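To illustrate the input format used throughout this study, we show a single complete record. The first block contains the structure-token representation of the backbone; no residue identities are included at this stage. The design step must infer an amino acid for every position from geometry alone.
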């Protein structure tokens, strides 16, 4: 997934350095939530974004230049990104040889979206959670936890592999490694992955 030998080797020979393992693209800054400490300064009013053609070209070039088959999508909320009549699921459909992992707040994964994700098959959501209901709602907004549970239900229903993304702070560090939290992931059958991030020490204090 991270590079075909046949394409990596000529790249290294030509440029004298290793290409990236993978590229993370943030196609747009718009987001429907207002989380405390949003790393991207996203909001519903922030319209900064890349054009579809640019994003598609980057994905294509990571493949053509060093044979990458894996791209990470961040944001803003990737499911809010629209450009040139296309969205993030269209991007996955247009690059069937690339596997995409998308960080998402999960709140926009309704039945239609889950079914489209199942259809393309190469875009997996990593849904952000801060812990259990209390912690997620405290940082992400009232009711977000229950919307995430509904998103997970929709993804399971359509057989879409998904995971979670957890940012550890001083507020939730103990909880997110507790049996209680692991039980939560098992109960909701988070089948694919769980990524833990730590904030920089200053940010951790501020959060
Ligand atoms: S969901 Fe992500 S991008 Fe949106 S406000 Fe929260 S942290 Fe920022």
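Output of the design step:
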């Amino acid at each position: 997934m991270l590079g075909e030998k046949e394409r990596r080797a000529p790249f290294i020979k030509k440029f004298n350095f290793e290409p990236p393992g993978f590229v993370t693209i943030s196609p747009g800054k718009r987001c429907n939530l207002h989380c405390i400490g949003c790393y991207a300064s996203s909001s519903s009013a922030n319209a900064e974004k890349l054009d579809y053609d640019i994003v598609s070209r980057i994905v294509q070039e990571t493949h053509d230049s060093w044979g990458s088959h894996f791209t990470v999508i961040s944001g803003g909320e990737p499911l809010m990104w629209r450009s040139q009549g296309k969205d993030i699921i269209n991007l996955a459909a247009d690059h069937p040889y690339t596997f995409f992992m998308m960080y998402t707040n999960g709140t926009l994964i309704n039945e239609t979206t889950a079914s489209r994700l199942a259809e393309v098959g190469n875009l997996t959501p990593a849904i952000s959670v801060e812990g259990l209901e209390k912690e997620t709602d405290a940082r992400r907004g009232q009711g977000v936890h229950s919307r995430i549970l509904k998103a997970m239900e929709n993804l399971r229903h359509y057989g879409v592999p998904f995971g979670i993304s957890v940012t550890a702070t001083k507020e939730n560090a103990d909880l997110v490694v507790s049996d209680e939290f692991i039980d939560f992931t098992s109960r909701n059958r988070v089948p694919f992955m769980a990524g833990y991030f730590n904030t920089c020490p200053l940010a951790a204090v501020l959060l």
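Structural context for interpreting the output: The pocket of iron/sulfur cluster is lined by residues 31, 33-35, 38, 40, 42, 75-77, 105 (CB under 6 Å). The CA atoms of residues 8 and 72 lie 19 Å apart.
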